[in-house]
């Protein structure tokens, strides 16, 4: 019973990666090109290094080309912008991702906006945010896009559902709300100034928690049968050991929810799978071919 309630993002992402690998193989054999993803890392942030390594490994495992650019922490904005310009013009590179955060001397938004929007596989460029808001064909931020696939897999048509998104960041909360609106949900966006968060959450058929506060959303905030997508990744100390927890208190939410993503193993694994998917989509558009079935 409980197991059916738990949304297995790891298994879903694995299946998706398998499909992407088959699509890449088709593009190679039928269309004669291999999609390529360039990942740029500036500095030595340990978490960023792990993310970049995982992205590179999964890109190669899918059969795509992976181009890694590792720059010193003291790199100037000008040098980084020159590299972006070079990658924008490189036909082997279909997707460009600059790992965030960037060192203080670099304006992250200026760098993101220097990426060719059609290669902006993170979907953070202002043009892609605009396309998402206005219904144009763009590239969608990977984490909310992954959440949407998990929701549609569980619920099918989302039209008319009341969704409450907690968090309004440019990388998760806002694009998530926009994606749900595009699916004809009625969307509430909550944030740190929201007056009565439990009351807002109690109205929701779908709860998306993207806050960055360990186990904040409690089971008694939920309507019976709500679907809960927990985006949060928080490292806490419990019983003298380090542990990863989400923004939802899993133990109290599980009995009330009809479905819930665990942390780890829920939304997290979907993010890189969606990055590979977006690279594939970008490559197909750049070559003017349809995405293989
Ligand atoms: P941000 O810190 O950029 O945004 C957090 C949002 O939560 C803000 O909008 C903030 O409101 C809101 N908030 C903070 N405190 C409260 C509160 N007490 N009540 C209601 N709202 C509150 O975080 P991100 O969006 O980047 O990330 C959110 C979480 O998702 C983090 O745990 C992060 O680690 C995780 N994450 C996971 C990913 C994955 O792959 N699974 C990818 C990206 C992020 P305000 O705007 O008013 O300050």
Summary of the model, kept short:
With 293 residues, the protein is of the alpha/beta class. It has two domains: 94 residues, Rossmann fold (3-Layer(aba) Sandwich); 128 residues, Rossmann fold.
Please, could you describe this protein's structure?
This protein is an alpha/beta fold. 43% of the residues lie in helices and 16% in strands. A five-stranded parallel beta sheet has the order 5-4-6-7-10, sandwiched between helices. The mean pLDDT is 97. Strand 1 (36-42), helix 3 and strand 2 (65-71) form a beta-alpha-beta unit. The protein folds into two domains: 30-123, Leucine Dehydrogenase, chain A, domain 1 (Rossmann fold); 142-269, Rossmann fold (3-Layer(aba) Sandwich). The structure holds NADPH dihydro-nicotinamide-adenine-dinucleotide phosphate. NADPH dihydro-nicotinamide-adenine-dinucleotide phosphate binds at residues 143, 166-169, 171-173, 190-194, 197, 210-213, 231-234, 267-268, 271.
Distance between the termini: 34 Å
Shape: globular
Strand content: 15-25%
* Heterogens: NADPH dihydro-nicotinamide-adenine-dinucleotide phosphate
CATH superfamily (homologous) name of the largest domain: NAD(P)-binding Rossmann-like Domain
User: What's the mean pLDDT score?
Assistant: 97
Q: Which structural class fits the helix and strand makeup?
A: alpha/beta
